[in-house]
Records
---
Amino acid sequence: MPRWIATLAIATAAGAVLVQCGSTPTRVESPPPATSPPFVARATPPTTRTSPPPATVRPVSVAELGPSWRPDCPVAPEQLRRIDVNYFGFDAKIHRGSVIVHEELAAEVVAIFEQLLRLRYPIEKMRTVDNYPGAEDELSMQDNNTSAFNCRGIPGASRWSEHAFGRAIDLNPLLNPAIHQSGLLEPKTAAPYLDRSRIVPGLLHAGDPAVRVFTDRGWQWGGEWQDPVDYQHFER
């Protein structure tokens, strides 16, 4: 064999070895498996709970009192205060109502109605009696309206009612009537509520928490009187 052919064969073999040794096979990496983005819990925005406005106390004018006051009343308008306060309704919602009382009792009356609200004692409605024609108490009672000041006398008597001084409150008067031994019933439409053994929301019984809200503060409750037995009436 010619020498140059042998040399070429050796060189070719060596090159093949070099190529074989120097070439590294390319490794194809598989793509990583798809993954979902990490779950990030979103903070729930706080629920905004609107608190009912606080009670307010302010003077009243002759015009505001309307037919519930007249010049011969035993108190002047300057001695009275209008209270706007929250109460728990028979619909289980909070409502805003108003009563007018003597200025000396204003702070205490605010505390009383705030405690009744905490007790969830239900009140049908609470507005001043001048909202009724002639400030007629019978109309207010038949409407089960909780009220306070009204310049009027005691039925069948010749003296002023404590309402005329702004020192009495009638609470749910249709449910809690005044019962006279003479047979007089106030309001006249309250016959369905003469049975006081019933446990009905709004009815007042001796020892009830709603009654004690008043009596623990020194108020008298008409439900303990003999004639009339005045379940709606509290006075101080």
---
Amino acid sequence: MAASLPMETFYFHSSGALPHRDDEGVELPNRGAAEVEALRVVGELLKDGQGWLWGPEPLVLQVTDADAEEILRVEVSARRTARRP
């Protein structure tokens, strides 16, 4: 039987356009996996509806470890520019 690798718990909090506090966390093998998961989450949010994207606040996804230390931050925003006549 192969020994399983120790898992770490990461928390994915968001603020700004879509505020959410993650109190459960996700068990992942390492920080690299947490980075991949953060990008997947942002991608899903973009696919689910972009009405929030054009608002005044950016989406900020903050990933913390079990000690509440920030290990990653992703910020997403967009701005429409004026049309030229």
---
Amino acid sequence: MARVLRKCTLSGVKVYSDTNECLQEVPKSSVDFVTNSHGALPISRIAQVLKPGGVFVTEQVRATNNFSLSRFLSDDYQPAFPDNNLISALVNLQKQHLDIIKCDSAYTKLTFTDVGAIVYYATVILWEFPQFDVQQSMPRLHSL
């Protein structure tokens, strides 16, 4: 990462680290390009930091990603970010007067061939399996 940041600096590119996902350190109307992948989507702040004609590119995971598996493992599962869907994002982007050049949705199918893979997956994607407990889930896992 340090090497990439050094190359960017030498090329005159300013890179902002944004661990809080709110673009707090970025001055208004100061950037030509904002990227976001699977992070929080502070659309009003993105619109503020972009220069006129600036570009915003994002890739998001929809609220119901893995819903059936999450609900299978937990009867009371509710999506952590229920408004995270394409329609809501488009409405909010348009409210900020951002032009939509391209948008698309993909609904990929996950296939697990090993129960251990499901356990691993549920332990690393905490927002989709927030209360996952292997011991509590054993009866359901055995039913597979």
